[in-house]
Amino acid sequence: MATGHEESRLRAVVDTAVDGVILINAEGVILVFNPACEKLFGYAAFEVIGRNVKMLMPEPYQSGHDSYLTNYRRTGVRKIIGIGREVLGLRRNGSTFPMDLSVGEADEDGKPIFVGIIRDLTERRAAEMALRAGAERLRAVVETAVDGVILIDSSARVLMFNPACERLFGYSGEEVIGQNV
Length: 181
What we know:
Blueprint (H helix, E strand, L loop, with lengths): L3 H13 L3 E6 L4 E4 L1 H7 L3 H4 L12 H15 L9 E6 L5 E13 L2 E10 L1 H23 L5 E3 L5 E4 L1 H7 L3 H4 L5
Antiparallel strand pairs: 1-2, 1-5, 3-4, 4-5, 6-7
């Protein structure tokens, strides 16, 4: 059993964590909802504690959650617990956001409880999309350039051979890419 100091230290860790921390019981009832979760989902802790965690999930996760927990308790087959995966979260305003969900299992008085660590992936997804868009623009510029453009790696292997190079050298990109310059 934790002492008063241990409990206050654990509470400090949970309350100041940058990532969302949520604790649920074996029936999916929310027991702890830290301030990071409040920011992520738009609910105050008192609004969700005592309610089923599926309220924070869009379909199809929402309707399948209770059967997932029941199946896990019966068979031990894990889909997220101890594994983690990317899922969607459902905010109070009805919008969804991509999140990385890691779930760990603990024991409380002989019954399982589950700790979820939630990381919002919205900014990472936006950065990935911006990088892809930039790469696509660069590829479009290179592909339509009047001048020949050859990109090689440090081993002198051809990585890119644009259409102007194909016209200049008489080789197709498929013939040249991967070859030594």
